[in-house]
């Protein structure tokens, strides 16, 4: 579970962003701006990031505040799961990334698999929709929903991409060091449950 200070910072930022979107009164606008700055102060106090960078990445959006969506493609082959080697932290993850405007979740999963692993794929079914706050991910400034979509390979061959340097299939009892910002060991073990029990219902937490 995420630390309370992070939950509070996110909630304050969301209130401020939504308030600034709809507020008309100059005094209300000032109050919402003060709340947004408070959320920045909280993050700056508990992290090593500068206020300027936090404002740009965390407190710079407009419109009604909504969670971000992260989509991961899940592919099994010979009882092993497909993972890609992330250049950013040198660890392993399911292929995937932020949802793109104009693409469906299935289209995003297929696109990310191609870009990060070299394989062409097709989406089969939704496996899980998880809220990152309920899982043991490192703290981050965004409220994020994670969608896990089962896919099957239709072509292509293993190849790294702009963000990845390697591709591999791993057994459940031989997982490599995972990029926990992207996926946890518990989540991968949950995905393996769908390999052994294809009838398992979608998980929604």
Automatic annotation (TrEMBL):
Transmembrane segments: none annotated. InterPro entries: NUDIX_hydrolase-like_dom_sf, NUDIX_hydrolase_dom, UDP-X_N. Residues 66-195 form the Nudix hydrolase domain. Pfam families: NUDIX, Nudix_N. PROSITE patterns: NUDIX (PS51462). It comes from the Bacteria. Keywords: Hydrolase. Its cofactor is Mg(2+). The keyword Mitochondrion does not apply. This is ADP-ribose pyrophosphatase YjhB (NUDIX family).
